[in-house]
Design goal:
This protein is mainly α. It has 2 domains: 68 residues, no CATH class; 34 residues, no CATH class. It has 4 helices and 2 strands; from the N terminus they run αβαβαα. It has a two-stranded parallel ribbon with strand order 1-2.
Protein backbone atom coordinates (compact mmCIF):
# COMPACT_ATOMS: atom_id res chain seq x y z
CA UNK A 1 0.00 0.00 0.00
CA UNK A 2 1.33 3.42 -0.93
CA UNK A 3 1.70 6.23 1.55
CA UNK A 4 -0.01 9.51 0.75
CA UNK A 5 3.36 11.00 -0.17
CA UNK A 6 4.09 8.14 -2.58
CA UNK A 7 0.67 8.39 -4.19
CA UNK A 8 1.11 12.13 -4.69
CA UNK A 9 4.59 11.66 -6.16
CA UNK A 10 3.13 9.11 -8.60
CA UNK A 11 0.48 11.63 -9.70
CA UNK A 12 3.17 14.26 -10.28
CA UNK A 13 5.18 11.80 -12.40
CA UNK A 14 2.04 10.86 -14.35
CA UNK A 15 1.15 14.50 -15.04
CA UNK A 16 4.72 15.28 -16.12
CA UNK A 17 4.71 12.31 -18.50
CA UNK A 18 1.31 13.13 -19.99
CA UNK A 19 2.19 16.79 -20.47
CA UNK A 20 5.47 15.93 -22.19
CA UNK A 21 4.22 13.12 -24.43
CA UNK A 22 1.03 14.94 -25.46
CA UNK A 23 2.56 18.40 -25.89
CA UNK A 24 0.46 19.87 -23.09
CA UNK A 25 3.18 21.66 -21.14
CA UNK A 26 1.26 24.96 -21.24
CA UNK A 27 -2.03 23.49 -19.95
CA UNK A 28 -3.32 23.81 -16.39
CA UNK A 29 -4.15 20.74 -14.36
CA UNK A 30 -7.17 20.78 -12.07
CA UNK A 31 -7.53 17.81 -9.72
CA UNK A 32 -10.67 16.72 -7.94
CA UNK A 33 -12.14 13.98 -5.88
CA UNK A 34 -14.42 13.08 -3.04
CA UNK A 35 -13.58 11.83 0.42
CA UNK A 36 -10.03 10.38 0.27
CA UNK A 37 -9.73 11.50 -3.36
CA UNK A 38 -10.72 14.99 -2.25
CA UNK A 39 -8.04 14.93 0.41
CA UNK A 40 -5.47 13.93 -2.21
CA UNK A 41 -6.67 16.70 -4.52
CA UNK A 42 -6.28 19.33 -1.80
CA UNK A 43 -2.89 18.01 -0.71
CA UNK A 44 -1.63 17.84 -4.31
CA UNK A 45 -2.59 21.46 -4.85
CA UNK A 46 -0.95 22.50 -1.58
CA UNK A 47 2.27 20.51 -2.00
CA UNK A 48 2.74 20.80 -5.78
CA UNK A 49 1.19 24.12 -6.90
CA UNK A 50 3.59 24.20 -9.85
CA UNK A 51 1.93 21.04 -11.23
CA UNK A 52 -1.67 21.44 -10.06
CA UNK A 53 -3.27 24.81 -10.62
CA UNK A 54 -6.58 24.00 -8.98
CA UNK A 55 -8.33 21.45 -6.81
CA UNK A 56 -11.90 20.53 -5.99
CA UNK A 57 -12.05 18.63 -2.71
CA UNK A 58 -15.60 17.37 -2.28
CA UNK A 59 -16.58 15.74 1.03
CA UNK A 60 -12.94 15.87 2.12
CA UNK A 61 -12.63 16.02 5.92
CA UNK A 62 -9.64 18.36 5.82
CA UNK A 63 -10.53 20.16 9.05
CA UNK A 64 -10.49 16.89 11.04
CA UNK A 65 -6.70 16.86 10.89
CA UNK A 66 -6.23 20.16 12.69
CA UNK A 67 -8.77 19.44 15.39
CA UNK A 68 -11.27 22.01 14.10
CA UNK A 69 -14.06 19.45 13.93
CA UNK A 70 -15.02 16.91 16.55
CA UNK A 71 -14.35 13.49 14.96
CA UNK A 72 -17.68 12.28 16.38
CA UNK A 73 -19.73 15.19 15.00
CA UNK A 74 -21.30 13.14 12.19
CA UNK A 75 -22.16 10.27 14.54
CA UNK A 76 -23.70 12.67 17.06
CA UNK A 77 -25.83 14.38 14.40
CA UNK A 78 -26.98 11.09 12.85
CA UNK A 79 -27.81 9.64 16.27
CA UNK A 80 -29.84 12.76 17.10
CA UNK A 81 -31.81 12.46 13.86
CA UNK A 82 -32.60 8.79 14.51
CA UNK A 83 -33.55 9.53 18.12
CA UNK A 84 -35.89 12.29 16.98
CA UNK A 85 -37.72 9.81 14.74
CA UNK A 86 -37.86 7.17 17.48
CA UNK A 87 -35.98 7.29 20.80
CA UNK A 88 -35.39 3.52 20.59
CA UNK A 89 -33.83 3.70 17.12
CA UNK A 90 -30.22 4.52 18.18
CA UNK A 91 -30.36 1.70 20.72
CA UNK A 92 -31.56 -0.75 18.05
CA UNK A 93 -28.81 0.36 15.67
CA UNK A 94 -26.15 -0.04 18.36
CA UNK A 95 -27.47 -3.49 19.23
CA UNK A 96 -27.38 -4.42 15.53
CA UNK A 97 -23.74 -3.36 15.25
CA UNK A 98 -22.90 -5.33 18.39
CA UNK A 99 -24.48 -8.44 16.83
CA UNK A 100 -22.49 -7.95 13.63
CA UNK A 101 -19.26 -7.68 15.60
CA UNK A 102 -20.11 -10.89 17.48
CA UNK A 103 -20.44 -12.72 14.16
Amino acid sequence: MLSVEQAMADYVDLIKMIKQTEGLEDRAVIVGGGSYGGMLAAWLRMKYPQWFQGALAASAPILFFDGYVDPYAYDDIATGVYAKADPECPISIKNGWNKLFEI
